[in-house]
UniProtKB/TrEMBL annotation:
Domain of life: Bacteria
Keyword Endoplasmic reticulum tagged: no
Record-linked Pfam families: TetR_C_21, TetR_N
All copies of domain HTH tetR-type, residue ranges: 5-65
The keyword Plastid is annotated on this UniProt entry: no
Protein name as catalogued: TetR family transcriptional regulator
Annotation: DNA-binding region: 28-47
GO biological process: regulation of DNA-templated transcription
GO MF, one example: DNA binding
Record keywords: DNA-binding
PANTHER family recorded: HTH-TYPE TRANSCRIPTIONAL REPRESSOR SCO4008 (PTHR30328:SF54), TRANSCRIPTIONAL REPRESSOR (PTHR30328)
UniProt cross-references to InterPro entries, sorted A to Z: Homeodomain-like_sf (IPR009057), HTH-type_TetR-like_transc_reg (IPR050109), HTH_TetR (IPR001647), Sco4008_C (IPR041467), TAT_signal (IPR006311), Tet_transcr_reg_TetR-rel_C_sf (IPR036271)
Length: 203
């Protein structure tokens, strides 16, 4: 049992690197099996085909990132900066998601079962809205989508600049501050306007 688990782990790790670098169509089973030190017949027995292997890799990475960055809806800026750090440490997840968008799911939810996966986070956001931490006029699903997109600004999916772990820490800290400040301002409840003073009677 342990040998089988270790074999699957090597396959998933080798396949993640291959898919992240080359996409689904460009990935080569020969390279994956060689890097994992597993013969192709065994790989096919576990995952069926290359598409099945990609599905397993993507599912594995989604679960890792979900558990690595717990939602703290009462502190959305903190959640966003932790997501920035998680993607900086694991850029292959963003690359895998980008390939999945390009080659698999161009529109709609990227991951099957998104509603179930997001239920806890959406519930936490709704609770934070009721508690006055987040603008209640926004749909929780939109809040989650926008915060995630903000945190991915400097990820491999970014259009302007992709952050790298070996950049100066001052660069990362500056981005964290900018991200936290922007998220805080974007989702803060609007202050209630004070009632207008009654008109003074004309003399």
């Amino acid at each position: 049992m342990r040998d089988a688990q270790a074999t699957r782990r090597r396959l998933l790790d080798a396949a993640a690197a291959e898919f992240a670098a080359h996409g689904i169509a460009g990935a080569r089973v020969d390279r994956i099996s060689a890097d994992a030190r597993v013969n192709k017949a065994q790989m096919y027995a576990y995952y069926g085909n290359k598409d099945g292997l990609f599905d397993a890799v993507f599912e594995d990475h989604v679960e890792q990132i979900v558990h690595a960055v717990p939602m703290t809806a009462e502190d959305l800026p903190g959640y966003a900066t932790r997501l920035y750090d998680a993607c900086l440490a694991r850029p292959e997840l963003v690359r895998l998601a980008a390939w999945a968008r390009l080659e698999r799911v161009p529109t709609g939810p990227l991951v099957s079962g998104t509603d179930a996966r997001s239920a806890h986070k959406l519930g936490a956001i709704a609770a934070a809205q009721r508690a006055g931490h987040i603008d209640p006029s926004l749909a929780p699903a939109d809040v989650l989508s926008i915060v995630t997109a903000m945190a991915l600004t400097w990820s491999p999916a970014g259009l302007i600049h992709t952050a790298a772990p070996d950049e100066p820490e001052s660069e990362h800290e500056g981005r964290r501050r900018a991200l936290a400040r922007t998220v805080r301002r974007a989702f803060a409840p609007e202050p209630e306007s004070e009632p207008a003073a009654p008109a003074r009677p004309a003399p």
